[in-house]
Amino acid sequence: MEDLPVPQNIKISNITCDSFKICWDMDSRSKERITHYFIDLNKKETKNANKFKHKDVPTKLVAKAVPLPMTVRGHWFLSPRTEYTVAVQTASKQGDGDYAVSEWSEIIEFCTGDYSTVHLTQLMEKAEVIAGRMLRFSVFYRNQHKEYFDHAREAQNNKMLLSVKDNSGSHGSPISGKLEGIFFSCNTEFNTGKPPQDSPYGRYRFQLPAEELFSPKTNLYFADFYCMYTAYHYVILVIAPKGSSGDEFCKQRLPALDIANNHFLTCSEDEDGRLVFHHAQDLILEVIYTDPVDLSLGTVAEISGHLMSLSTVNAKKDPSCKTCNISVGR
């Protein structure tokens, strides 16, 4: 019996965080005998990840022979922003239930994508469930070491400049390693209504009126929801001046929020036309502002509390938490 054709020129397309399309060329001889495709999908570990693969090794995916390209979607093995190797063989199911198979194809590498706005909306809806009531606040603040603010004054024309978002939070977050901004906090203590005196980021705090960063002249976006193996949950929001490069970046990738009516952070007008600000009580909000900020807009002072150890810099999300994970990847 003639050998089954080996898939050639494998092409991967339409890659998302949990799906991809795959197609290949095949010799037309014996093509009508093909009943199934075996797809071997592995997380990439080394350049020789599939070096010892041969046709007797069990495969992870068995699919009926369908017209190409074929979509692989929602497989438990697929996670966002992860490198994979894939190889294919053709198969013919025999009368005894066994399969005749071709040789394995060449090995192709690809990387899955970020969360889409659909996935981020699912995360946002989970965050809304535990956001709690809204508390009033009046300032945004940023803690750093004294040297950070000295450098801003002396070498950066008195401005805090943008830096690229680190890899903390959800693995599929589209802002990690891409969006430039400045992190601020706005959470207040329940009993005082003021910012806490402790911080994991430094003993010096820059504080400025909330309206300097957040107003009808800015857009607000939901970016992430995560925890770090603790009871605390974090939501990352992005404030971007309308029409700025940060705003254009977020507009294409993140769910937009109504600044006056959402579960996390609001800016609205009171009866006298003054801006009033509220934040969610039961979440720790991390707010990214996407433009440089002049230190003259606020004040820098030393805090009286302790330097806490719970920093979120490059912190990994707990993949087992049912509160803040969605079913697609991690």
UniProtKB/TrEMBL annotation:
It comes from the Eukaryota. GO terms for cellular component: cytoplasm. Residues 6-115 form the Fibronectin type-III domain. SMART domains: FN3. May play a role in the development of the central system. Gene3D superfamilies: Immunoglobulins (2.60.40.10). This is Phytanoyl-CoA hydroxylase-interacting protein-like isoform X3. It comes from Carassius auratus. The gene is LOC113056352. The lineage of its organism: Eukaryota, Metazoa, Chordata, Craniata, Vertebrata. Pfam families: fn3, PHYHIP_C. Belongs to the PHYHIP family.
